[in-house]
Amino acid sequence: MATLSLFAVFLGLTLLGAPLAVALGLAGSVAILEAQLGILSVPTTVYAGIAKYPLLAIPVFILAGLIFERVGVARQLVSFASSIVGARNGGLAIVAVLVCMVMGGISGSGPADAAAVATVMIPSLHKAGYPKAFSASVIAAGAATAILIPPSVAFIIYSVLVPQASVPALFAGGLIPGLLAGLSLLAPIVYLSRRHGFGMADSGPRPGFWVSLKGAIWGLLAPVIILGGLRLGLFTPTEAAVVAVFYGLFVGVFILRTLSGRMLIDMLADAAEMSGVVLLIIALASVFAWAGSTLGAFDAVAGAALQATDNEVVVLLMLNLLLLGLGMVLDAVSIFLILLPLLVPFMEAFHWDPVWFGVMVTMNLAVGQFTPPMAVNLMVTTRIAGVRMEAATGWTLWFVGAMIVALMVVTFVPELTLWLPRALGYL
Length: 427
Prior knowledge:
By secondary structure, this protein is mainly α. The protein has 21 helices and no strands. The longest helix has 35 residues.
């Protein structure tokens, strides 16, 4: 009865439109009362859910991303990428994807990445002859790589929920799949641009390589400093977030001279609000996860599924379909908190590597970030572009298909994920 109450209350509250954090917390609390596990375990579990050192990195990385976005780093990166790609069909759209990938290596957040690049790129893309709906789709898809290319907020949360996978190993494991996901978008960009003649309009002179490199070097150095410091053992992932913040402040105040006191106050407020939402969901989801694991509900569900089929390929395909479907209606953090307690028993039953499994799950959720109806990245870019999401859906499906191909490669070739962590000594 307690297990039934856990899932029934959660599903009922979700269908009624209750906030996800409320649905998770209440469902767990009802199950705890039903099973007489002690109601005082609720506040204890809420505290324990967020009293974890790695989670300190989340608000700090969010703040670092906001700083780099608003001091003008994205504009410098656009100029540098344009100097490399040059004027051609699809050239400026390719630039948008490349900038999204570099910015993702700073912010670790898809929606934040999408907002920063869309604000800079959409006017230029429109001037060069790209439809706004197409531009919004390109940037939304490119920004999805932010949760794969380190540093990634999603990987930090995964490491807390699955302690067998360390944050440095996940960061290293996500690099090649993240690059593969971004590069997979280039094929449909070039095809569609040539087919429809996008990018033929004059978009201005090609920026000089060395001049643009000089302007972009401070943004390009940020991922190098973060990842290099982690590899050399100079700081932990949490300390790396603090280093990124102070580096961003240094660039904004002394190099670009675009950061004012008013901007800093606004960024602190925005980072606090975004972090508060994420951590509240994590805290209340901990109640749901503790109740389900204590009752054995998650192991029972996994056991029932494994009795239906023990074919590893079939199970992998089913998990991917489930994650892709949920990614279309829920955000990545929520899916981690709801599903990981259910998915970990599958990982253990098939002896899957937890780092590879985490990257595969996260890549599914990256696709969901720009797949309607939820499509948080696409919501951001279409709003900035001033078009309806429905207008961008047709273009978006091309990029969904391309990234799913990359996802299948990562799913069935685990070495793409595991080679770098092993080479760096994390596994």
